[in-house]
């Protein structure tokens, strides 16, 4: 049986947020104030749709956006971690669940030649239209009150694990690697043998550290990381068990 590795993308695989990084393509590398202020909580995908429309209207083209995205730095130790997983692929299934979009993630993984490390990428579908503008859609609809309208990562994870089970694939452990507040919901799905790996100093760690007061207990173990190299150590420990 394999281990399932679940990665968030922004601030986990890459060391920044792809949606805010793209703003450097805008004139003077910033958005107009009205656009910046138009974000409504829970409606990030709609907001990014307006950002992409603005960039398109200002003549920012696909190549320029691709150049910006593929210059994003990977998080420390992440290149080592992804190479480690690639070399031990018989022991790991590996997926991404991200609130970024399919175009950005594709560009970044392909440019760094990490595309084959991941079995599946779950994210908001995006595409360039015939007018050269990037458009993005919600990943799905769901009824989780905790998550943004377009994506509940827990629903995605539960569906993936159920589907795999129907194909006869089950996992010894699920390891969830993430940084953000929207990584908390999927972590509540983890069981005793699983591992939540929040990035040290980021929102998910803070939420998990307030757990005793929280109503919903986290059953899995929690292991912090700052570098992908620390994640390698923990995976080595898990596969030796
Ligand atoms: Mg993140
Ligand atoms: Zn949720």
* Secondary-structure element order, N to C: EHHHHHEHEEEHEHEHEH
Enumerate the distinct ligands. magnesium ion, zinc ion
> Helical content, roughly?
25-40%
Q: What's the alpha carbon Rg, rounded to whole Å? A: 18 Å
- Report the principal-axis shape: globular
Mean pLDDT: 95
- CATH domain topology of the domain at 2-16 and 73-124 and 143-240: Rossmann fold
In the CATH hierarchy, the architecture of the domain at 2-16 and 73-124 and 143-240 is 3-Layer(aba) Sandwich
Uncertain segments are none
Number of helical regions:
10
- CATH homologous superfamily of the domain at 2-16 and 73-124 and 143-240, by name? HAD superfamily/HAD-like
Give the termini separation: 12 Å
Mind describing the biggest β-sheet?
Answer: 6 strands, parallel
Task: Write down the CATH class of the domain at 2-16 and 73-124 and 143-240.
Answer: Alpha Beta
Query: What topology, given as strand order, has the largest sheet?
Result: 3-2-1-6-7-8
List keywords for this structure.
241 residues, alpha/beta, Rossmann fold, 6-stranded parallel β-sheet, two-stranded antiparallel sheet, 10 helices, 17% strand, globular, binds magnesium ion, binds zinc ion, hydrolase, magnesium, HAD-like_sf
């Amino acid at each position: 049986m394999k281990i399932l590795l679940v990665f968030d993308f922004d601030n986990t695989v890459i060391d920044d947020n792809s949606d805010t990084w793209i703003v450097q393509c805008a004139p003077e590398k910033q958005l107009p104030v009205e656009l910046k202020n138009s974000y409504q909580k829970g409606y990030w995908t709609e907001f990014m749709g307006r950002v992409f429309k603005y960039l398109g209207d200002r003549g920012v083209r696909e190549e320029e956006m691709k150049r910006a995205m593929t210059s994003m730095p990977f998080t420390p130790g992440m290149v080592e971690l992804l190479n480690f997983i690639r070399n031990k692929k018989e022991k790991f299934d590996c997926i991404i669940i991200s609130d970024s979009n399919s175009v950005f993630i594709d560009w970044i993984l392909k440019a760094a030649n990490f595309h084959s490390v991941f079995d599946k990428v779950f994210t908001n579908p995006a595409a360039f239209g015939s007018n050269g503008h990037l458009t993005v859609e919600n990943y799905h609809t769901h009824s989780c009150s905790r998550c943004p309208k377009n994506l509940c990562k827990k629903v995605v994870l539960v569906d993936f694990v159920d589907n795999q089970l129907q194909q006869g694939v089950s996992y010894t452990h699920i390891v969830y690697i993430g940084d953000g507040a929207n990584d908390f919901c999927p972590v509540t799905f983890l069981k005793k043998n699983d591992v939540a790996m929040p990035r040290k100093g980021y929102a998910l760690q803070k939420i998990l550290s307030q757990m005793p007061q929280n109503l919903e207990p986290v059953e899995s173990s929690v292991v912090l990381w700052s570098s992908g190299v620390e994640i390698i150590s923990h995976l080595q420990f898990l596969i030796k068990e």
